[in-house]
């Protein structure tokens, strides 16, 4: 598995943890243990997505920053040029997300 | 469980007496999910005339509605008590995604997902 796929998988995993904590916190809004776990997961996911968009394509529109995105020049039509990085990365229907 | 052949013990007021003095109890409302017995021929070859099997909460043709709402056929009503989920130490993210939950207490061996006990 490529570095890109590994990082993406880790983002998905911690994202799932956040989603499940969300369900728990909906019914336990004062649970301090759950709040702590949520803060940890949120911070972890934030750091991972920042790292990801720096090395590869941005995952959200808020992370689009041509100066800092995709330093590895992976899945881009415009290597070496300042460009709109939102269009980088494999298209979903190309089924290369895990590559 | 099939209740369609169960005859209710409740055969109190009999207005429409079948021939021979035997009644099917058609005017007595049956509990939801049970048959009131109309489909069963009365003893000694007599019949009440209600040949149709009455679906739960529908009319059997006697002019009487059975009480409803009724559960699906074969199911009975029940009351459930579900405790609030307590906090517990959660799985690592990779394990949680594989098991479909962050909570070990909710990690049940469901058929559909293959269960996938921890490996």
Structural class of chain B: little secondary structure
Question: Gyration radius of chain B, to the nearest Å?
Answer: 24 Å
Q: Would you report the number of β strands of chain B?
A: 0
Largest interface: A-B, 16 and 11 residues
Helical content of chain B, roughly?
under 10%
What is the domain tally of chain A?
1
Detail the poorly predicted runs of chain B: 1-59
Kindly estimate the percentage of residues of chain A that lie in beta strands according to DSSP.
under 5%
Describe this structure in words.
Chain A has helices at residues 3-27, 32-55. Chain A is mainly alpha-helical. Chain A has 2 helices and no strands. The longest helix of chain A is centred in the N-terminal third of the chain and has 25 residues, at 3-27. Chain A starts with a helix and ends in a 44-residue tail after the last helix. Chain A has one domain. In chain A, helix 1 (3-27) runs antiparallel to helix 2. Chain A is elongated and about 50 Å long. Helices cover 49% and strands 0% of the residues of chain A. Chain B has 119 residues and is mostly loops. Chain B folds into 2 domains: 1-78, no CATH class; 85-119, no CATH class. Chain B has one helix at 93-99. The model of chain B is unreliable at 1-59 (pLDDT under 50). The A-B interface holds A 10, 12-14, 16-17, 20-21, 24, 27-28, 31, 33-34, 37, 41 and B 84-85, 87, 90, 93-94, 96-97, 101-103.
């Amino acid at each position: 598995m490529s570095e890109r796929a590994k990082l993406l998988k880790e983002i998905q995993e911690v994202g799932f943890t956040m989603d499940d904590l969300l369900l728990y916190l909906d019914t336990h809004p004062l649970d301090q243990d759950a709040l702590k776990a949520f803060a940890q997961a949120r911070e972890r996911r934030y750091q991972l997505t920042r790292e990801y968009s720096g090395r590869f394509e941005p995952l959200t529109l808020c992370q689009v920053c041509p100066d800092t995105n995709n330093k590895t020049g992976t899945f881009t039509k415009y290597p070496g040029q300042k460009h709109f990085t939102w269009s980088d990365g494999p298209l979903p229907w190309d089924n290369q997300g895990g590559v | 469980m099939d209740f369609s052949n169960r005859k209710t013990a409740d055969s109190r007021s009999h207005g429409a007496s079948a021939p021979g003095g035997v009644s099917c109890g058609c005017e007595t409302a049956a509990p939801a999910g049970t048959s009131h017995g109309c489909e069963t021929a009365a003893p000694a070859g007599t019949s009440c005339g209600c040949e149709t099997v009455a679906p739960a909460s529908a009319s059997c043709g006697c002019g009487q509605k059975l009480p409803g709402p009724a559960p699906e056929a074969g199911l009975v009503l029940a009351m459930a008590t579900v405790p609030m989920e307590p906090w517990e130490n959660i799985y690592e993210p990779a394990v949680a995604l594989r098991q479909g939950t962050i909570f070990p207490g909710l990690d049940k061996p469901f058929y559909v997902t293959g269960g996938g006990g921890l490996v």
